Every structure is written in C-alpha cells, then in structure tokens.
Amino acid sequence: NTSEYCSSIAISELSADVLRDLPTAQRFALDIGGSLSKIVYQSKRKWRKTFVVYDENTDSHLYSTQELEKEADCLHFIKFETRLLENCLDFIYDNLKGSDGRGLEILRNSPLRVTGGGAHKYRLAIEAKLGCVVEKEDEMTCLVRGCAFMLKHIPGELFSYEHDSSPPCCFADELSDGGEPFLLVNIGSGVSMLKVENETTFTRIGGTSLGGGTFWGLGSLLAGTSDFDELLEIASQGDHRNVDMLVGDIYGSESASSVHGLSADIIASSFGKASKADCKEFSKPDLLRSLLITVSNNIGQLAFLYASRHQLRRIVFAGFFIRGHLLTMRTLTYGVNFWSQGSVKAYFLRHEGYLGAIGAFVRGLEKDRRIGVLTGSWAENLCTSSSFDVGSWQGMAALELDKRKELTDFPLLRDRLDYVPDTWDLSQSCQQFQAAFQSARLNPPPSQDLSAREYWLNCFEASIDRHQQRAVLSQPDSPSATERGEAFRLAYQNFFKEARANPVAFGQLTVRRILDVQEHCLRESGFPDPFWVLKREENEVALDGLQSRLSHLASLPSADLPAALIRGLLGGNVFDWGAGRVAELLAEHGKQFGLNEAMEQLQPRPWLVDDLDAWTSRLKAGVYTCAIVFVDNSGCDLLLGVLPFAIDLLDRGVKVILAANHGPALNDVTIFELRALIRRVGSFVPRVADALSSGRLLLAGTGSSSPCLDLRYVSVEVADACRQEQVDLVVIEGMGRAVHTNLYAKFSCDCLKLAVLKNAWLADRLGGNLFSVICSFEPAAAAAVG
Amino acid sequence: ATIAVMASRQLSETKLRRRSMSTSYRLPPLPWFGMDIGGTLTKLVYFEPSLDNAEEEREKVAHIRKYLTSNVAYGTTGLRDVHLEMPNVSFLGRSGTLHFIRFPTCSMSIFIDMAKDKNLKDLADMICATGGGAYKFESDFQSRLGMSLLKLDELECLLNGLIFLAERHPLECYYLPEPDPSRSDCLRQPYSLTRQSDCYPFLAVNIGSGVSIIAVRGPRDWNRVSGTSLGGGTFLGLCCLLTGCETFEDAIALAERGDSNKVDKLVMDIYGGDYELFGLRGDLVASSFGHMMSVDKRAEAKPEDLARATLVMLTNNIGSIARMCASTQGIDRVIFTGNFLRCNELSVRLLAHAMDYWSRGSIKALFVQHEGYLGALGSLMELVDPDSINNAYFTSESAQTASDDSQKMSSRKE
C-alpha cells in the first residue's frame, strides 16, 4: 500500500537527522495524541572539546591545548503523525537492537512513560513491540511539568500574539521565575483549564467540550476531509462574515457604529446566516473559518472567565489545537483581550507541542528516583533544532537540548523580572527599549528599527568565510577539517536564510542570539575553539609586556592611577577579533599594534558616556569589599588592561573575582586559559600569587560560552561567590557584555560598564563614532531611584 | 454620560408613577403594538381591548383587530402563538387580550406591505420597537409606510416585559425540580417572581440568535455582564448545514430523537472510564463532535444524532458561561429567556440539568412561558409614556449596551 510505503520512507529520512542518536538512547518518553505523537529521548552525544593543559616546566608555550571527545547528555524531541506510530516503534526497535542490544536492555530496565490521549489505546501495541513495560502518565500533570521545564530552561519560550507587530509575536519571560500563579489552558480534543501555582501544584478549575476535537469533528463534517492541518489551511482562506451574523447585519452597518460605537464586524451569532433559506450555498473556506473563530473565541472567553474568577492575570494556551496557527492564536488572544479589556494577557509557547512528552520524561525520572539526570541546565541547540515558523503547523519540527552546567540568576540584579539582557530586539520594533535608552543616557533608536536587523544579519553573514577559514586552520592535523568547515558554513548560512524569512525562527532575534548560533554551528561541526592558537599567541605577547606595563603604572602619581587604569582597560578592549574593523587593523599592523597604539584610537574625553570622575572619587573613598569583573578578550585586554586594574583593586584592599566564560567564544578568554595565565603571572608578580593563595583573588567560570552575557543564566559558582564574598561592585567590560547586552541592566550594588564601540553602525546608533567610549558608572543608590 | 444616565433613570421613575395613576393622561390611539426586531425573528405583541363598554371602534382599527385575531397564520411566514395568548389583562386602565405574533425578520418587507395595505399609518404615526432591527429597518418604515419607529433599549424592554409578566401571570415563571435530559415528562414547578418578592438579584440569559447575559440587581439596576455568539442562530445554522433541515422546529424535532453519544467523545472514550484525578465522570462529554474526524463514525452518525449533539454542545456552553457569570457576580438565580427556548422542552431540560450538575445544586435555573416575547411586550409598555417620544434611550448608557451580542461590557460591571 502506497501510503505505508511513503510512511517508512518518511521515517527513515527523519532518521538521518533527528533520530541519529537513537543507538545511544538512554531513556524515552512518549506523548501520543490524536493526530500527532511526540517522542523525547535522552542520549549521550560525543563532542569535541578543548582542554587547556598547563605545564610549568615547558617553556615553549604558555600552555597547550588538546581537543578530546567528551560525552554529554542531550535531549531529542521528535514529532510524527500518530498513524505512523508502529513504523516509528519498529525503527526505534531496530536501532536499539543494532547497538549490540544494549539499547534494548536499557529501555527495558525501567517502564516507558507514555502520556496523551493515545496512551490508553496503544499501550499493548507498544509493550508487544518493544518488550518494555508501559506506564501511563496523566496528561495534565505531564503538561504542567513540561510547561515548567520549558519555561525554566528555554529563554524566549513564551510569547504573546500582537496583531499590530510584524512578525506578530512578542517574546516574554514573565513566567519563568514561577512566581505568580497562572492559568494553563490545554486545548486538546476538549479543553482543560488548570490553575498552576508551581511546577508540581495545580488544580483543574474547569474546562469545555468545545475544543480541538470540535473543530476537527465539525470541520470534517462540513468539509468532508479529516486532515486537521488541511482543515486549518482551508479555514485560513475563508471569510467568516458570509456565514456569521454580525452586529451590522442586525442593526444595519451604519447604525451599529454611529449609534452604539460598535464595530459592525462583531459577531452576534456564529453560523447565524447559515439557516437563511435563500442562500444555501456556503463555501468550505468560509464555513471552516467561521468554525475556527467560533471555537477559538469561545475558548478565549471561557479562559478569561475562569482567569478572572480565580484572580489570574496570565493565560498560557497549549495543546494540539494551536500548533502555531496564526488565526487561532489571533482569535484566542482577541477573545481574552475583548472580554478582559486588556487586564488579562494571553501567551503561547514556542515548543508547546512537546510539553506532554517532556513532562512524561520528567515524571519518569522522578518516579525512578533519577532526577539527577535533570540537574543542570538544558540549552536549545540552535544548530540542530529546526526553526519555529509562526503561522505554519510545521513550526517546531525538531528540538534538541544540550545539557549545560547548572545556571541561575545573577544575584546582584536589582530586579530579575525587569531584566532584559538584550539592547536590540532585531525581531521587530525597538519601542520597548526607548525608556531604557534614555535611562542609559543614550539616544533612543528609532521606534521602527528594521534596518538594525538587516545590518546585523549582513554584518555577521559577511563574517562567515573568515570564521570558516579560522576554524579549519585551527585543526591543521585533522583530515576532515575542510569538510567540516564546509558543513559549518552551510549550517550557519542556513540560519541567515531562515532568519531573513522569519526573524523569530529561534525566538527573539538579537545579536546575542546570532552569536549563539555561530558558536553552536561551530561546535556542531567539530570546531570547539577556532581561536585557540590566536588566543595563545596574543596571551604570550601580552604577557611579555605585563611587567613593563605594571612598572609604568607604578611610576604614575597615585592621583592619576585610576584614570590611567581605566584608559588601559579600554585600550585593551580594542583587541577584539569579533569586530571587523579591528580584525583589519590587527592583521595590517600585526604585533606593532600594541596597547599604546590602541589607546591612541580611543575617543578623547569627554567620552560618549563619561563617568570617569565619579568613578575615580568613588574608588578613592575606599568603600568596596569585593568586585566581580566579567572579562572579555584574551591577550592585551585581559593581561594589560583588566589585570592591572584588578591588581590596583587588590592593592586597595578590595577582593577581586575575575569571571570568564566556561566555553570558548571568539577570542574571549576562557576560565581554563585564565587559570593558566594567572598562575604564570603569579610566577613573576608576587602580589598576584599572594592574592591567589590567600583567596583575595578568585577566578570563576560564568557557565557561558558566548561573547555576550545573559545574567539570567550564570553559573552557580559565580552566584555563590557573589553572595559569599559580599560583592559590592560589578565591572562589565566589552561590547558584547556591556553594549549588546546589559547596557541598561540595573544592579543592587555599584556597577561600572566599560566598552569601546568598535563598530561604526553601533557607534552611530548610540550617537557616537568609531572608538567612542562608554564609561558608565552606576551607583547602587541612583539605580534604586531610577 | 453620567448625567444622561441619571436623567434616564429619573425619567423611568416618572413613567412608573404615571402608569400607576391610570388614565390621568391621554392614551395613545389604538391599535397598541410592541415590536422586537431580532436578528432572526420579529416578535409582535398586540393588545386587543375588550369592547364591552360600548365604545365606538374606528373602522380601520376594527379591521386590523379582526385580521389579527381571526387568523393564526399571516402570509406564508407569520404565526400567532395561540397557546401564549393572555386574556383578561388590564393594561393602561383597559382590559383586553394580549396576542403574541412572530415572523422571520427576513420577511420584514412583506410585513411592511401588509401594514400599508391595512392603512396602519392613518391610525398612528409611530411604532414602539426594540431589537437591532429597529435601527436597521427604521428608514424602510419611514419611506414605505410613513411611520417612525420609537427605538427602545433592548435589554430594558426585556426586563420590563419579564417583570410585567411575572407579576400578572402566576404560572409565568417555572423551574424543573428534578431536571433529567432523558425524561420528557419532567415536572415544571411554578416559581414566584414578582416585584414585591425579593426577586433581585438574578441573572437574565436571553438566548436569541446570539446570547446576552444581564445581571439584574433592582428594577432599574442592571448591566450586561457577558454574552456569546454561540446561540440559537448557531444551533439552527449548524443543523441546517449538517442535516439539511430547514426550520427551527424540524431541527428540534430531530434533536429530540437523536443520540449525541454517537457524535461526541466522552471522557470514557479517552480515559477508558472516569478521569479520577479530577473527578470527571466517564459519561461526561469530553469533546463535542470529537468522534466526527473518523470517517467510520461519520458514516454511522444520523442527522438526528448530529442535531442532538449540536443542541447539547450549545446548551452546555451557554450553561457554562451563565454559571461562571452567576458565580462571579454572586448570583444564584438564572432566568433563561429568548426564542431559542420556544417549544424547546429538550433545551430547557438540558440547561436545567447542566446548571444543576455543574453548580452542584447551588444555582437555580428558571424559565418563562413567554420566553421570546419579553422584549416586544416591554416595548408595548413604552407606548404609554408620551415623554418617551422625546426621550428614547439614545443618550443613556444602557443604549450603549443595547446590541444583540458580543460587545463591550457595561462600564457598570463590578
């Protein structure tokens, strides 16, 4: 039979990609719905990873680097049509059996958790096929767990439908902290309304039988086809006004608006025209659109009624009915807005379809007392996950999450809920940032800043060749490097293609997001650290100059020292291989371009934002206990700019935490390199060795591998250190961490943000020029007022 | 807006005083009509005065009276609901009979022709009318008949009509002590609802083409709290599409014979029994029409079953919204009105049962005999107030809440 044949082809084509890690699968969970089913499985993936090897006895290099394969946990999400369930099970069985049978053994060790409407129906079939025990998991419980999981781990998971925006979704993270209870509306065959207090506590407060099954069933009757997605597609072509009785039909279109101030288009009676004997012919698109609106509007209204009855201000819609369909989301949102007059807000989830599956997975771990698997953070793999396409049910086809270190909120943020890491939303308008820009004393960008998206996409896309080249060069001994370099290029190019067509393909589009995609694509292609050679070179050169830099600083009158240190730090920050203009300068002048040359490039004072005097007098007051410094580039930046600044703080009796990335990103220094470098510095700068051994100088990994800094996700190490050492000064350095992100982050303690604008467009947008300087000192007290 | 509202409330009080003073002012000329022009049906209430006081009746008035009272059908689509007729009613100091007549709003043109034919405009130059059609057809009445329409607030007319009937007609209001959707012989128990009794507050749920939900706290203290576009028009529209039936009566007759379980997915169809975690019984509907995506089940479902499922879906949904509104408003009595319930015993049982089951007996569902004519009756009552000609509700707040459906909630919502 043809369709069966097609099905197995479909499955095996799928296998090349999303099912490739099946042989190392450790654990499964299944969500079987009426039309679509989802599998989540956990695998061990092998990554190339860079290790810094530090040997004090070798003098050829500062340190050496080894690339090794390392296993890491990965969660894979796949969806497929429920009618293909048996094929899919066969495929899983073959793969598990193929991996010397151990896979099957692991599968049979613990019950397979299955949720969804089909859990009951397919239970025996699954048990027979896979030879494992199936345990049914409650749908609602899984949904709530899954929702909590996604909100916790995936930034930009939540969005609202904004009809006047383009694309019409606005991302929000308002529910991620799990504070205020919210209403979770699951639109499956029927509808359940759940009041969710936290990830384990929820109550079903109501529901309705007019749900997805009603649209599907009634739609099938009206259209004569049972394909859910086809029904949605037909509906989107129709005009419900031919079928529904509108206020204008009853009052006359003029009276409705002139007498009552009502829109004549408001629906008075759904299907109200369908009974008129004189017009029996209705088109299928019109009927289906009317049906879709009827069902969605009604759910939106009931959701509002339940939310207001229980004093809930936020509604999250989930369930198979939505599947990213624009008209559905629009009508649900309209219903909530209309009845609540804006007092209740409707939200949707980017990975709504996977909530049940991941919930069942989490429930399984809880029951098997293996919850340890979940500790840590799970990050969306932006290279292997397929994009989210609003308006198409195919949105969110595949998802992969990589296990990362456990990450947490940076404890010194003044208001975690107010914190938005990114300065520009390249997805759409910058309106929301206007006030923030003013508070950062910068010119606000134009409200409809579409050119920003175009600029940054072009800017990063133009750098692909440069990165590909460097990546291949970083592995001179690998025969596959060229081929993998090509794979990197294709994957990264593909991202730009998608992002141009659909700016919200991976949630909110920001500079940070683009840089994340770049890192993910490199990592996925087996290039964990393309800059490692260059970084080591730069570090070695800079290290040679450290002694003379320190001597020079020591010769200055003490009153001039703070300003000189800041200038040095800013000069050091010019050394950024991520910035095109700088990369040119560095390539042109080579080693002749040193810290002094860099400092000469800096904008003369007064700087674009110039708080140098305020900072100097505050520093001299001697009020600080401990400072945390988020460092940026390797070489001059770290060793000649940041380190002397840190040594000065230590001299003033201030403890210092130097915080560096865990993973490589461009030429940013990693915590592993930092440790090697500081130990080496200690060998000829006794003050540093003393501070290190006495615990006054601490080195911490941030948990990040990005040139930007998202303070909602920092390592527990950094968070704990801030608390234990009573950090009262935060120093953030560099364009990625202090301009693209955190430009207007507010802290509960003093903060010093330092950056050189090494990009002409960015400088222009902020009202400055190339090499303009931001030296923003934000005292805690002022932050509390502002 | 506040001033306008105050004015209209004072006016209403004056009006009430005048009514109680009987005939101390000039009565409007006969015949006395009240009209309610809805999205689907037009309702007409006609007061036929008794002629026992040897009064001279004008020839044209007599002509109209004889035409209306000697027929039960008018043209091809007009009908008089004889079973609702109310004899011996005292109205404006006269005694007489109230007649209840309806015709489809799409036959309005025929009605206007008939009124022209009977020279209605020689007797009066104005008709009291409510409903959205009072706006839509105003210019037709003016141009073709030379009569103006006194446009009256829909919900106010509805409530006035309701209280008027409840006070004069002891059997007007009733409830089902033991609602059971499967039994057609459910006992109807009269319920006393008069202005004198503490009848407030209550929730009025008017099911016409669409549904309006009004919280009523006192004689002139009410606001529209909600509504839904899923109403009687939806039932009839869907039934026509699904079963090919053509009239409301046919659709109801089909529904009475059908089995919705052939069409709907029940909780037990999904969970194999009760959904115990949430206390949902296995025989509850989980998904209306939830079986119909299956080709086989579609082939098995008969038109009766589809009609029944449509009815069950809509009554459950209306009941659900009404119940949420009642509990949000702190109200425990819900009066269902509107033409959807005309000759629709089944829906009465379904609504009564749904309210009783889901509120666990804490909210009472009430029904009225003249379900669809309250608005028309209310508009007839406005005939008496000569001031009302100049003081229709254009400027009042209530006028802004007057449309059929789905509009902004009144700002008086608490």
Automatic annotation (TrEMBL), chain A:
Nucleotide-binding found in the keyword field: yes
UniProt keyword annotations, A-Z: ATP-binding, Coenzyme A biosynthesis, Cytoplasm, Hydrolase, Kinase, Manganese, Metal-binding, Nickel, Nitration, Nucleotide-binding, Transferase
Pathway listed: Cofactor biosynthesis; coenzyme A biosynthesis; CoA from (R)-pantothenate: step 1/5
Entries under InterPro entries matching the protein: ARMT-1-like_metal-bd_sf (IPR036075), ARMT1-like_metal-bd (IPR002791), At2g17340_3_helix_bundle (IPR035073), ATPase_NBD (IPR043129), Type_II_PanK (IPR004567)
UniProt keyword Translocase present: no
Domain Damage-control phosphatase ARMT1-like metal-binding: 514-769
First-tier enzyme category under EC: transferase
A Gene Ontology cellular-component term: cytosol
Compartments, as annotated in UniProt: Cytoplasm
Subunit structure: Homodimer. Interacts with PKM.
Family named by the database record: Belongs to the type II pantothenate kinase family.
Protein name in UniProt: 4'-phosphopantetheine phosphatase
Organism expressing this protein natively: Macrostomum lignano
Lineage, top ranks: Eukaryota, Metazoa, Spiralia, Lophotrochozoa, Platyhelminthes
Automatic annotation (TrEMBL), chain B:
Keywords carried by this UniProt record: ATP-binding, Coenzyme A biosynthesis, Cytoplasm, Kinase, Nucleotide-binding, Transferase
Compartment(s) of residence: Cytoplasm
Protein name per its UniProtKB record: pantothenate kinase
NCBIfam families linked to this entry: panK_eukar (TIGR00555)
Subcellular location, principal: cytoplasm
Keyword Nucleotide-binding appears in the UniProt entry: yes
Keyword presence, Nucleotide-binding: yes
Reaction(s) the record says it catalyses: (R)-pantothenate + ATP = (R)-4'-phosphopantothenate + ADP + H(+)
UniProt-listed Pfam families: Fumble (PF03630)
EC main group: transferase
UniProt lineage: Eukaryota, Metazoa, Spiralia, Lophotrochozoa, Platyhelminthes
Organism in which the protein naturally occurs: Macrostomum lignano
Chain intervals with Basic and acidic residues compositional bias: 405-414
GO molecular function: ATP binding; pantothenate kinase activity
Family statement drawn from the similarity comment of this UniProt entry: Belongs to the type II pantothenate kinase family.
Region (Disordered): 395-414
EC number: 2.7.1.33
Polar residues bias (residue ranges): 395-404
